[in-house]
Amino acid sequence: MRAYSFSTAITLNDQTIIGHQALSSSIFIDNLNPIFTDQDFSQKYDSIQKVIIIGKIERLLQEAENRRKQELDQELAWIETIAKTGNSIDGHKFEKLVRKSLGFLGFNNDDHNQKLKLKHPQLKDGLNPEKVGGAGGLDIFCEFPYFLVGECKATTSKSVPVKTPAQLIYLGNRHLQNDFDKCIKVIIAAGRLTSDAALTAKNNHINIMRPEILEKIIVLKAKYPGCVDLLELKKCLENEPFGEEANNEILKLINKIEDEIKLRSTIIQIVKQHDKQTIIYLLGTYNGLNPSKKLTERELYNILIELSSPLTGYL
């Protein structure tokens, strides 16, 4: 801030105010006198910028990084129990973890719930991690960003019986009626489907997700917020062939996300090692590493814009 002095004093009423207070009469200002001359101001500004501002920014960034690490440790504490619980006999705990996981990914986020009334209010607890569906209700129900219904099956056995997809079909039709057909349908279970269960799942467009894959994508989301696009996940869950194949499609999506993260990490390292170089130079350096995916000049340019955005702040 730069301070100036007026030629005459401005007096305000002696009272506590909130917001703005009108002056008793208008004042014409024809001369502003800076407390410091331009030269003095510049010198003091430079010294403050170097000594205080940079140091303060570094401390703020370090504090933010430390907070993020603490938050990540807390998140991973429950995330890393998903697969273990899915391969146990604790069905209620697994159902709660699955609901918490989908909410963590962004399904039925708070902004959506505040703005829109649920189309199916009887299923308003479909992602509440403190409640469970039980025998009379759907284990999972989401309306945002798309309709998704599902059943959770924690088991120590190697197979999932036909009654699991059958129950999802029965409860889905019962509660959602005409809307059930447009829902993404998923069973999150540890065991493999029996032949009858697999046939029922494929004929009714139901996909399977393993607890291990769910945990893997939630870990990725925790470490790199914003990296999981729910619309990309939708593609993995709505295409034929249905059943076990969806698990492989989700794994491909996870690998794709990890590759994109590694690509950007490499670019960040190159830019920091070769400061103030041209894009052509950086491109040659990157492609010279023989990466699995080589970039064009335009692709590198767009990634550099992304990484230097204030929303990411990597460069």
Q: How do the strands and helices of this protein lay out in sequence?
A:
Layout: E1 4-5, E2 33-34, H1 38-79, H2 82-86, H3 91-105, H4 110-115, E3 140-142, E4 148-153, E5 159-160, H5 163-176, E6 184-189, E7 192-193, H6 195-203, E8 206-209, H7 211-223, H8 230-238, H9 245-273, H10 279-287, H11 297-307
Parallel strand pairs: 4-6, 5-7, 6-8
Antiparallel strand pairs: 1-2, 3-4
Helix pairs in contact: 1-7, 3-7, 7-9, 8-9
**Biggest sheet statistics:** 4 strands, mixed
Structural class: alpha/beta
Q: How many strands in all?
A: 8
Strands of the largest sheet, in order across it? 3-4-6-8
Beta-strand fraction estimate? 5-15%
Shape: elongated
* H/I helix tally: 11
Q: What's the average pLDDT?
A: 85
Termini gap:
27 Å
- The topology string of helices and strands comes to EEHHHHEEEHEEHEHHHHH
What does this structure look like?
- There is one protein chain.
- The protein has helices spanning 38-79, 82-86, 91-105, 110-115, 163-176, 195-203, 211-223, 230-238, 245-273, 279-287, 297-307; strands at residues 4-5, 33-34, 140-142, 148-153, 159-160, 184-189, 192-193, 206-209.
- By secondary structure, the protein is of the alpha/beta class.
- The strands form three sheets. The protein has a four-stranded mixed beta sheet. It has a two-stranded antiparallel sheet with strand order 1-2. A two-stranded parallel sheet has the order 5-7.
- Helix 1 packs antiparallel against helix 7 and helix 8 packs antiparallel against helix 9.
- The model has no long low-confidence stretch (mean pLDDT 85).
